Amino acid sequence: MTNGHTSMDIDDDDELLYEVDVELRRTPQSTYLFQYPIRPHYRSYDETTFASARIKEKHSLVEMDLLIDSQSTNYYAARGKQFADSTNNENGRQYFNSDRMDKQTIASTISSNGDHYFVCLFDNQNRRLVLCPLKSIIQLRPQFDYIDTPSSTSGGANAKDSNFIDDEAYGSDGEQSGSESEENKPEPIASLVTMKFAKKESDYHKKKRLQSYSYYRQMRDDERWQDLVCIMNPHSFEAQRIREEFLAKDNQSISS
């Protein structure tokens, strides 16, 4: 190790302190570097509780659900309930786990190839440096899907849903009267149907289609999520166990 000096700057009389073996370890699982660009360094996620996490490994997409303490004195209960009411009713699915906004999702927005980067651990006991290549470098930022829902941007629960039935046109039992429905029943209208036959795609256009962003987005959306287990505290027992397994000498490695 030269500490940033080139070979021309090294004095031949410098004392060599020690030498270490360097091992390149290729693990069966992919290794990623997570970055949090807008998270202050003094507020790390080490002690944070995550409810769930998932990944689309082929496209390096990651989502992590961070639990929010809705009982905290700093929590705005009225607004949290408003977000939950508008979001949980959207598409009939339960976005939050309670009647309040109780989680925040952080997701990858930018990922870059990590082929030229490595994560390393120094094995002090055996005096060796173990390197593992990165698959990707992922940047995670908060997502605001609970704000982007139509119900929260169009008036919330007071907005009239287009799927609701107009009570003025229907009786109290939800059915139209027979005479009114017969009178207002539209006459069938014949329509002209035009049939189109798809042309055979040339190799050039196929190549362009496969390189397009719309095709990439379709493939990204079609990939299924895989569940992950979050171990955020580097000092936890589970984190220590993973490090020991990584440094185990019986793992297959390439010495260099």
UniProtKB/TrEMBL annotation:
Residues 149-190 are annotated as: Disordered. GO terms for cellular component: RNA polymerase III complex. It comes from the Eukaryota. This is Uncharacterized protein. InterPro entries: RNA_pol_III_Rpc5. It comes from Adineta ricciae (Rotifer). One of its GO terms (biological process) is tRNA transcription by RNA polymerase III.
